[in-house]
Amino acid sequence: MEKKQGQLVRSLTLGAATILVVSSVIGSGVYKKVAPMSDQLMSPDLVLWAWVLAGLISLCGALSNAEIAGMLADSGGEYVYFRRIYGRFTAFLWGWSTFAVIKTAAVSSIAYVFTQSLHSIFPLPHLPESIESIDFLIFKPFENAGVKAVTIALILTLTFVNSRGLRGGAALSAWITRSVIVGLALIVLSGLLFGGGSFEHIQTPAANYVDRSWTDFSFIKAMFAALLAAFWAYEGWNTVGFLGGEIQNPNRNLPLALSAGLLIIIGTYVLVNFTYLYVLPIDQIISGYKNQNEIAAVSVVRYFAGGAGATLISIIILITTLGCTNATILMPPRVYYAMAKDGLFFRRAAEIHPKYHTPNPALWMQGIWACLLVLSGSFDQLTDMLIFAAFFFYGATALGVFIMRKREPGAERPYRVWGYPVVPALFVLFCAALIVITCINSPREAMLGIVLMLTGVPFYLYWNRKKPD
Fold first, then answer.
1. Is 2 helix (H, G, I), strand (E, B) or coil?
2. Given Cys at both, which of 77, 232, 316, 348 links 361, Cβ 3.0 to 4.6 Å?
3. Structural contact between residues 47 and 37, judged by C-beta atoms closer than 8 angstroms
4. Does pLDDT of 86 surpass 90?
């Protein structure tokens, strides 16, 4: 008897899709990244400019992505775009990289930050040292066992929630996102009104600051390092495209959700980081980063609200990372579903639950692999190695705007990228620069990232043999 198969349902409104863009981006970066950025640039106004610049570059990517997303809206995001623009192999390579490291490592690392924040409030247990120190190849799977166990439990719980219907997962993201916005608003209002800050803090650089021209190579290196920190905070803006097959009127609403969501994020990041730098002198932020390794937001709130305020901000970080983990779990399985339908992924990933209309096997494949990455303890390193790969694919999407305009000039385009050809061209050039600089500055990490992506090639060769005529 043939197994009953469900189908994806267009249940997401424009508002819900916009919330998912915001919730999939705002994670730990808004609380942590001001400190390493301050350490690099040593000037409050330059730090704020770096946040704006990273946001504008990401917006250029989102606007370029939106034209392709509007044309080719379907579940699978870039997989669907690349299949149409570049062919099956490039589409598969992106999807495999997403599964092997990019999104599963993001799930693992964000969930781990959640548990670390929980651990700072309620210390979690350890196993005996003799067990935690056991090595398996280069990994220590039992190290920090309490934190890892709760992280795995969180991933499995959120996977289960999302397997019970898109509305439930989206509703959870909506509730958490509203809570996060309220929490960040409280930080801004309380910091600006009662934090004892000063505009002098914004205008005063660090003691070791050296004034340099924007064309000075040492300044460019410092700004580039700060931008990389900021880009982690902006990472994830493209993932709502994975849900193209489940968004109402996707050709109109998907580009709008991408653009509106990212503008909300840019405004939020600049305002919150302005508050940090208004309340605390930049030297104090740098000192806390180097000596105490404390989250910058916690340092700022503790400064004017004491231990109770620090506990409150830790709870807000818990809620934020919960929402970001949920959104990151929710969307990528639609990619694996689309790949499996093409015969380029494990066959079961093409199944849709007949009652809940969700790609449950793909969700659980992702969840189990993310849990294994948690046990490996190496997910942060994996994520760092694949950042340049993510920008390779972002740039390829923007380049697709030019390819499709030439190849299919008469195709329906519900949205045409604003500022064409300058906006997509600038984004493609920036992505190329990022890849080149990463290969020069970090050749080992870049090579390892390439190797990890290419682990999918044997699978592609095997699955592609079975390609239907």
1. coil
2. 348
3. yes
4. yes
Question: CA torsion angle for 83, 84, 90, 93 (degrees, to 10)?
Answer: -30
Binned at pLDDT 50, 70 and 90, residue 157 comes out as very high
Q: Which residues contact 7 (CB under 8 A, 6 or more apart)?
A: 352, 357
Q: How deeply is 213 buried, as exposed, middle or buried, from its count of CB atoms within 10 A (0-12, 13-18, 19+)? A: exposed
pLDDT higher than 90, residue 46: yes
Q: Tell me the two tokens of residue 207.
A: 């003691």
Residue keyed to tokens 């064309």: 215
Q: Which of 199, 198, 195 is nearest to 301 (CA)?
A: 195
For residues 275-290, average pLDDT: 87
Burial of 7 (0-12, 13-18, 19+ CB in 10 A): exposed
Q: Which of 91 and 179 is assigned the larger pLDDT?
A: 91
Structural domain containing residue 276: 14-465
Q: Is residue 246 part of a domain?
A: yes
Asked whether the beta carbons of 427 and 57 are under 8 A apart, the reply is: yes
The CA angle 403-405-409, to the nearest 5 degrees, is 135
In a domain, 6, yes or no: no
**What tokens appear for 280 in the block?**
């605390």
> pLDDT value at position 469?
43
pLDDT at 76: 61
In a domain, 8, yes or no: no
Instruction: Supply the CATH number for residue 68's domain.
Output: 1.20.1740.10
251 exposed, middle or buried (CB, 10 Å; 0-12, 13-18, 19+)?
A: middle
Q: What is the residue type of 312? A: L
Up-side HSE of residue 49: CA atoms within 13 Å toward CB?
A: 11
Average pLDDT over residues 373-402: 78
